[in-house]
Structures are given as C-alpha cells and as structure tokens.
Amino acid sequence: MNMTTLFSFTSPAVKRLLGWKQGDEEEKWAEKAVDVLVKKLKKKKGAMEELEKALSCPEQPSNCVTIPCSLDGRLQVSHRKGLPHVIYCRVWRWPDLQSHHELKPLDCCEFPFSSKQKEVCINPYHYKRVESPGEWCGLCVPREGSRDQSNTTFLL
C-alpha cells in the first residue's frame, strides 16, 4: 500500500455524513471538515448518532451537537479557518453561506456560537438563515456627527 492510499482513506462515518452534503462545496475540503468533526464527536457518547438523526430527519426536533470552542472560536480545516457552525451549515444546508452574520440560532439551541460558551452547537438545523446586512437593497449611512448605529438612516 503506498502512502497516498494510506492517508486518503475515508472512514465509513465520514462517508455517511457526506451523504447529506449540499451543493458543490469543494469535495476534498468538505471531506476534511467532516473528518475533523467525526474525530471530535467520537469522544462524546451519542453525538454522532444525534448528528445523523438531525441530518436524516431535519423536520424532527433534535438536540444540540456540540464541539469544544477554541480560544478564538474558529476551527481549522486544511489551510482555512472558519467558525464551526458556519462551516457545517455550509456543508449540510447552505453551500453559498458567506458569514456568521447570515445565521441566527433557533430558540431550541442551548449552545449557539453567539453565547460564547465552552462548547458550540454545530447542528445545522439549530440555525436559520437571515439576510446579511451586505445584501440589503438600501444604502446604510450614519447620520452626521453620530457614531452609534441607532442614528443610522437607510436610503432606499
């Protein structure tokens, strides 16, 4: 067996989870992201099963699926760093997702990224997509002499 074959093995758990992948996200990057997640979830009893349940039955209520938060809140996958909930929402729900500003946690989520806890929920069905400020059809202009956003005027 050559070294390339040895290191390119995809575990059955990763293959199963990739079955729910959305869109044309870079295949190798998505595989690596899921592999990183599987390694973290295997350390937690029932976490893999909970994620598979959420992905296979998105219309059913599901529990949080958490991973430890790093010091800066980001997760490194290959050469790219990103916020964990954004990475996995991109893999399993919205491949065109650009930023955490486009996500809002659902009320059922106990460990949303915004709560700054030691664990963060990566269950893609615990977040909803919202319009990001950059996609507004109007132009946001601060009123003269104002620094706070409550004095912002929207020009349409």
TrEMBL record:
InterPro entries, per database record: Dwarfin, MAD_homology1_Dwarfin-type, MAD_homology_MH1, SMAD_MH1_sf
Main subcellular location of this protein, as a coarse class: nucleus
Keyword field: Nucleus, Transcription, Transcription regulation
Subcellular location(s) of the protein: Nucleus
Alphabetized SMART domains for the sequence: DWA (SM00523)
Gene3D superfamilies attached to this UniProt entry: SMAD MH1 domain (3.90.520.10)
GO MF entry, a single one: RNA polymerase II cis-regulatory region sequence-specific DNA binding
Pfam families per the UniProt record, alphabetical: MH1 (PF03165)
Claim: Repressor is one of the keywords in the record: no
Keyword Transcription regulation: yes
GO biological process, one term: transforming growth factor beta receptor signaling pathway
SUPFAM superfamilies associated with the record: SMAD MH1 domain (SSF56366)
Domain MH1: 12-136
Domain of life: Eukaryota
GO cellular component, one term: heteromeric SMAD protein complex
PANTHER family membership: PROTEIN MOTHERS AGAINST DPP (PTHR13703:SF61), SMAD (PTHR13703)
UniProt name for this protein: MH1 domain-containing protein
